[in-house]
Specification:
One of its GO terms (cellular component) is plasma membrane. Keywords: Cell membrane, Membrane, Transmembrane, Transmembrane helix. The protein is of the alpha+beta class. The protein has 14 helices and 13 strands. Strands 3, 4, 5, 6, 7, 8, 9, 10 and 11 form a nine-stranded mixed β-sheet that branches. The protein has a four-stranded antiparallel β-sheet with strand order 2-12-1-13. A hairpin with a 2-residue loop joins strand 9 and strand 10. The two termini are 24 Å apart.
Length: 431
């Protein structure tokens, strides 16, 4: 019997037992669909996490350093700045401070305040925000703040060195804050007031949060909101701490390094430097990077993927056992046919190939339906979980097809070998 005849016989056997074959395929269909949906879901989750960390800023190290009382003889901030400029891997350093209070921000008739209710004044357009989440974070930084935090200027310019050095009353707005205060007007060279102090707008940052809809899960909603919050900000020169923070030194800094490989080296250097200038009895410091959190998140996702993969593998194992069971039944039903073939000279190899082809064909057809169900399930899960259209990758599709055929061969092997080992005389006696 050649290969073509074996395929025809397998097709005939499957078509003559349509109901039984369909039920046998069901396990493969469910298993493969589960594999495709779960793997695609994990990939979608990784995409969401990647979008989140890219928005937070890449290749940056956050440093918190402070002393209490008059215990320190050095200006920690200035010393840190000078030291970082000596390191090869550092491309920028900026204070990353913020204003502790919640000063009222005004532009003409529009007001942003943390505690006011949204209302419309009788004399004009009066907009105030009742939710603290709408109020912008006011940062204190230098000319490297945008670079260090991956902000890109969309209008005007960023802070300059002289703005900080001369304590110029200028500011750069986040995209959402600019939209709140100016709607469709160009904010550049307009003047806003912060607690009555005028600040000229010199630039607007490009939005980081537009389209930041990462899904409907609680975690995805939290990440989406975190990204959008990045646009609700105002950047002032770090020297403005004298106006709003009683001239207290800034304790938060951000260090931008040239690539992810430099993070570990620069972090080690900063640890050594800060431990040398800050006495633990009179001060403290901490160093962390988004990359560290990202690596931890990636490890957690990898564990989740392995767990989900294990569940899908169990489904496939059950489907494979079903294939083995039905092939054993087929061998029993066709024992007499096998005896006749062996009696007229069929080789064991021919019997093995015939039953393996039949098992692989059942799994292959089940695999096609399983891939189809997996695609439909992935579209539904992607829309419900991430608010977007997820499509399984070509690699997953090819792997699923290969797995389905492999399952047929693996679980069909034992019945095929058993059939080929039947003695002709014994097989011909079978009823």
């Amino acid at each position: 019997m050649n290969l073509t005849q074996a395929i025809k016989m397998a097709a005939k056997s499957i078509s003559s037992n349509k109901g039984r074959s369909a039920l046998t395929m069901l396990g493969i269909i469910i298993g493969l669909a589960a594999v495709i949906i779960l793997v695609s879901y994990a990939q979608g989750q990784n995409m969401a996490m990647k979008a989140y960390y890219e928005s937070m800023g890449s290749n940056k190290i956050n440093v918190s350093a402070y002393t209490w009382g008059n215990s320190s003889s050095v200006d920690v901030g200035q010393a840190l700045y000078d030291y970082c400029l000596q390191l090869d891997g550092v491309v920028g350093v900026s204070p990353n401070g913020y204003i502790w209070s919640s000063p009222t921000i005004k532009y003409e008739s529009k007001t942003l305040s943390r505690n006011s209710n949204r209302s419309y004044g009788g004399g004009g357009v009066m907009v105030s925000y009742d939710s603290s989440s709408d109020y912008p974070q006011i940062y204190l930084g230098n000319d490297k703040f945008g670079l260090c935090n991956d902000y890109v200027i969309s209008k005007g310019r960023d802070l300059s060195y002289l703005d900080v050095e001369n304590s110029n009353q200028v500011c750069v707005l986040g995209a959402a804050t600019a939209e709140y205060l100016f709607s469709f007007a160009d904010p550049v060279d307009k003047t806003i007031s912060i607690n009555g102090t005028p600040f000229r707008v010199v630039g607007v940052y490009k939005s980081k949060g537009s389209g930041a809809d990462l899904g409907t899960s609680e975690e995805a909603q939290w990440m989406s909101e975190s990204i959008k919050r990045l646009d609700r900000m105002i950047l002032l020169p770090s020297t403005m701490t004298r106006l709003f923070n009683d001239n207290q030194p800034i304790e938060e800094y951000v260090v931008k390094v040239k690539n992810s490989d430099a993070i570990k080296e620069v972090t080690t250097s900063l640890n050594g430097f800060l431990s040398g200038i800050i006495n633990t009895n009179s001060g403290s410091y901490s160093i962390y990077s988004e990359d560290t959190w990202q690596n931890e998140s990636n490890e957690a996702n990898a564990m989740q993927q392995r767990f989900l993969g294990g569940i899908a593998a169990i489904s496939l194992l059950v489907g494979g056992i079903g294939i083995m069971n039905i092939m054993l039944v087929t061998v029993t039903e066709r024992t007499r046919e096998i005896g006749i073939r062996k009696a007229i000279g069929a080789e064991r190899k021919s019997i093995v190939v015939q039953f393996l082809i039949e098992a692989a064909m059942i799994c292959g057809i089940g695999g096609i339906f399983g891939i189809g169900v997996g695609y439909i399930g992935t579209l539904i899960v992607g829309k419900l979980s991430f608010g977007t259209i997820l499509i399984p990758s070509a690699a997953i599709t090819v792997a699923a097809a290969a797995i389905s055929v492999a399952l047929g061969i693996i679980f069909g092997m034992y019945p095929a070998i058993k059939a080929s080992g039947l003695q002709p005389v014994v097989a011909l006696r079978a009823e």
